[in-house]
Amino acid sequence: MTENPPEAGVITQGIEAALPEGALAEQLASGRPLRVKLGIDPTAQDIHLGHVVVLEKLAQFQRAGHQVVLIIGDYTARVGDPSGRDTRRPVLSAEEIDANARTFTDQAFKVLDAGSTEVRFNSEWLDMPVAELFALVGKVTVAQLLAREDFRKRMAEQRPLSVLELLYPILQGYDSVAIRSDVELGGTDQTFNLLLGRDLQQAYGQPGQSVITLPILPGLDGEQRMSKSGGNYVGVTDEPGEMFGKLMSIPDSAMATYYELLLAEEVPDAPPVEAKRALARRLVDRFAGDGEGARAEAGFDQVHKRGEIPEDVPEVDLDGGDAAEVHVPALLSRAFGVSGSEARRLLAQGGVRLDGRAMAPDRLDVPRSELAGRVLQVGKRRFARLSG
Amino acid sequence: MTENPPEAGVITQGIEAALPEGALAEQLASGRPLRVKLGIDPTAQDIHLGHVVVLEKLAQFQRAGHQVVLIIGDYTARVGDPSGRDTRRPVLSAEEIDANARTFTDQAFKVLDAGSTEVRFNSEWLDMPVAELFALVGKVTVAQLLAREDFRKRMAEQRPLSVLELLYPILQGYDSVAIRSDVELGGTDQTFNLLLGRDLQQAYGQPGQSVITLPILPGLDGEQRMSKSGGNYVGVTDEPGEMFGKLMSIPDSAMATYYELLLAEEVPDAPPVEAKRALARRLVDRFAGDGEGARAEAGFDQVHKRGEIPEDVPEVDLDGGDAAEVHVPALLSRAFGVSGSEARRLLAQGGVRLDGRAMAPDRLDVPRSELAGRVLQVGKRRFARLSG
Q1: Number of CB pairs < 8 Å for A and B?
Q2: How far apart are CA B375 and CA A244, in angstroms?
Q3: Mean pLDDT for each 10-residue chunk of chain B (388 residues)?
């Protein structure tokens, strides 16, 4: 007797779309073990809860006996965009890419079963003779690619789109040809690329993969997608106390989504703060180990409950923008109305605390992730909970 | 004492445009020997008078002490368009390409000085590692390429344009980078590609080439551009008699253009038929050898003047369309109003003549080039001069 639900049913739950219609159901009904692809960009290292949504879905496939294939996009990352036009694609060295890939897979194996996961690097097939590349790009039309929303938009706004950028989705799609994937997973923002992979497989005489898109997890602000660059993320290797505190800072409105996407459950019928504590405990347990959730909660309470910090503290937004770091004097000005020079003086005197601990007087710029969800304190009585 | 005009002056004569404005004049004024590029598509073999316009301009550069570089586009021809969408680009074998290239250069050296011409194959640099190709295509934007008139049109009309086709002009432009050309020549229809070569050179930190476009020579019909596929061409290896006859068939209205583009002269002040004879004689002399023009003219006269064929014969158009062959029975129907079956009977009886010689009874389809400019004859008294 097992407590696991029938996995084929679970697989189609909590997804945004399965395309084309009926294809996935047919594949699952065949009983054949499927090759299930996830492409990974090795320019980022740490996995956050946004990635976990997709990894969790892959884990469900694994438990149902399917073959998960992780594709590390090392080749595309190594090439980067030499035009320097697309700053989102830094060119990395082989060593950096390997290190990032290792970090990513190590962390992914907190969710996936390492032993049964196939990990491939796309340099294995993308470092092809130019003639083969020409054969590949001859199978795709310009119109097909310019249908992609962001391409279309950049063309319409007359912002530069290099021919190389046009090639990336083709290369990514060719990964599906190379590993003969049956299913590919991605965020809803990847729908175009995933379907292009299907088209390319068919152009190469293979059955086309089906495509599963997953909803995008909002970040700690409850609005923007969770991302490292957005500074609104919870990393799976965050310290238990930090993870707990960050999760306690998500707005109540985002809780249902977190429950659904990360725990595949509905929000429990309990006061929001209790439901949030349960969510934070369970996620800390999952990534830091059983019992760590309760320990983190106790630490949280020690600071917040035992009078050191009042229960009810006004919220201060960490401010939007893409910056990964927050300038502490500016934050103090905004939170407590002090002048810049006073803020610096307070910092220098050790009069600024974060979750009850004095902040270092010389760190004027602090990563957003160290602040989100914490309580900032000046002197004995002025507090602000940092959100966003 | 020499009869040659100062070559720098000649170089800027009879051209359609020199771009960007002032660049060529500055290069010529510098007195530095220039590297002057012409790209050649080795999917065609024989050179016709349309090519001669450009080759003649190259010869002027040579005589002024500049270095002419012929680029055989063997690599692009070998890759072709694997999508099969663009039927204008057949994929050729290496042997066919080499044979075509040899034929082309042999014929080009009727105009150019072989000893001082540099001939290069672009496979020498285009068969590059994929990473270098990525660096190359990263320097060009999609919008830049879609500005090309035929691309723009195909996109607008929603006809397929493969990503590979988008790459061709980039590859062709890279030829200029590889050989560090100072000047590139082409037809007016090549303006976009030539200027892209300039842009790429600058993206690679080289001085950008200047670009000379030349007017396009009309074919025997006096209207469509001269081309093999149009069946309205005079090949530089045509038999002297055939070349003479074809040139006598061009409409008077096209004569000024032929004089300007092929002889760099104005039409002489003489009756049109005399001017045409002089043009035909001189071109036959040039391509078949001195004296061949007069010999061809005598042959022409033998047939046309000495009563065998009247001087004044009605013209019949060979009919438009792209077909390289003409169906003789249909032509006879059109020229003389005979029925299809009668036409076949006349042919079978040897009653159909071309320039006075009986046509073979079993050749129902005859290459257009064998007919253009000749006189078709049925029986003793019915004649038609074939044009177009």
Answers
A1: 101
A2: 97
A3: 51 91 95 96 83 94 97 82 45 82 91 96 92 92 93 92 93 97 94 96 97 93 84 88 90 92 91 94 94 92 71 73 79 87 85 84 84 83 80
* Under 8 Å between Cβ of A155 and A161: yes
DSSP assigned state of B324: S
Instruction: Report chain A's terminal Cα–Cα distance, integer Å.
Output: 44
Rounded distance, CA B141 to CA A162, Å? 4
* B147 inside 8 A of chain A by CB: no
Q: Give strand ranges (E) for B248-295.
A: none
Distances in Å between the alpha carbon of B253 and those of A321, B220, B222, B264, B267? 69, 11, 7, 17, 11
Q: Do B143 and A162 touch (CB under 8 A)?
A: no
Cα pseudo-dihedral A217, A220, A225, A229, rounded to 10: -130
Nearest to A11 by CA among A49, A69, A66, A70: A66
Question: What contacts 24+ positions apart, CB below 8 Å, involve B91-98?
Answer: B92/B42, B92/B43, B97/B42, B97/B43, B97/B72, B98/B74
Residue of B141, B154, B204 for testing the chain A interface, max A β-carbons within 10 Å: B141
Residue of A141, A145, A146 to mutate for B, most B C-beta atoms under 10 A: A141
Q: What average pLDDT does this structure show over A211-227? A: 91
Measure CA A276 to chain center: 20
Note whether B110 and B51 are within 8 A (CB): no
Three-class SS state of A199: helix
Tokens found for residue A67:
């073959």
Percent of chain A with pLDDT over 70: 91
Residue B330 and residue B339: Cα distance in Å, rounded?
9
Q: Looking at chain B, which residue has its C-alpha nearest residue A135?
A: B82
**Among B146, B151, B163, whose Cβ lies nearest the Cβ of A137?**
B163
The pLDDT score that the predictor gives to residue B321 is 59
Locate the chain B residue with the closest alpha carbon to A151. Answer: B142
Per-residue buried b or exposed e for B66-87, using 16+ beta carbons within 10 Å of the residue's own CB: bbbbbbbbbbbbbbbbbbebbe
Of residues B81, B139, B142, nearest to A138 (C-beta): B81
Token couple for B33: 């020997």
Query: Is the Cβ pair B163, A145 closer than 8 Å?
Result: yes
